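In this notebook, the sequence line spells out the residues, with the fold written below as integer tokens. This is how one looks.
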Amino acid sequence: MLYHLFDWFNTEGYKFPGSNLYRFLSIRVVLAMILSLTITAVFGKRLIKFLQAKQWGESVRDLGLAGEQQKKGTPTMGGIIIILAIIIPTLLFAHLGKVYIRLMVLCTVWLGAIGFIDDYLKIRAKRIAQQKGIAYKKSDSDGLAGRFKIFGQVMLGIIVGATLYFTPSVVVKREVQAGITLGPKESATNFDTVTIDGKKHIYVSVKTPITTIPFVKNHEFNYAKLLPESWRDFTYILYIIIVIFMVTAVSNGANITDGLDGLATGVSAVIGIGLGIFAYLSGNIKFAEYLNIMYIPNIGELSVFIAAFVGACIGFLWYNSYPAQIFMGDTGSLAIGGIIAALAVIVRKELLIPIFCFVFLVENLSVMIQVAYFKYTKRKYGEGRRVFLMSPLHHHYQKLGYHESKIAVRFWIVTILSVIVAIATLKLR
């Protein structure tokens, strides 16, 4: 909003000291991060007191884990402050006319609302049990039914995928050298002349369903090539299905990872920094040319949103690190997972998700392997057996005797290394 206000001032001829600073993306990125950190740091404490007064605390299952009873009563639904710390700076400092910004605001609010409903229903179930004078035992059935969560994630995936596929302004720019060769389901629009280091380059805007594929020489992959030539008119269906899968998988992966103090928050902050680097490199024509990666115009504005996202995660980590004073709940975990997935799709790095979201991936796989092996052995031997002492994976390490703060920090380190590897793939081919 402030961006558009200052833009109006400039259009109307109102000049005052510092009135043109809004034009600099770097300034708005810094302001967004500072404001995001301020919101979480200042108002986070107030939210904790409010939730404590409402007795909206965490109910703990008896899983035999060290320190689990100390978490009982810790305020949950802290994801509210994360969402506010993302939305407010974005609305103030970002160019709201950009389709990418609008999509990310929608993702944040949409998944945040789903998570909020889930958390609220769990709290209501606890309150009803207390009113009846019976002991409350936490159960997944107390919250929003899983099918409704999946339905919400699928609908969001459809909106994101359809918007990116059909919106005319969502394009990549390619340099025209000895003519331009278009792939399947690609169309060229306008040509631009860009001067880089004193040399003129001609770029063409291309509407295309491509993404980045790592570790290969031709690092751009056209989704239309996955279909027979006679079916390529339906590429949009394939693309939307892929987006749905990414949003659902990463959102649930973040939700599963959110099981230790500071674990999901710290991992998400590191991933956010990596996505910010992707967005900056892809939106800067000089770096895109040097790295020989696709240049995506107008994507630089996402840096404001990403700065707010990283600031919100780091600020929340102040209260969420061991021993946690507040938990984000599904309100936060579903939202940050969906945000990460949508950002990866927008910067066309969704096939790199298994690399920079490695922790989310192994946490998801640990649950799937545990459940599948348990069912298989129960059918074969009459009793279920387990691969891990407990799933998700972070609970396995807890059972081995590792302190949860050590597990969280080591998972952060793994994520840092994963992000570095993902960034390195841009030049490794």
The chain has one domain: 2-424. The mean pLDDT is 85.
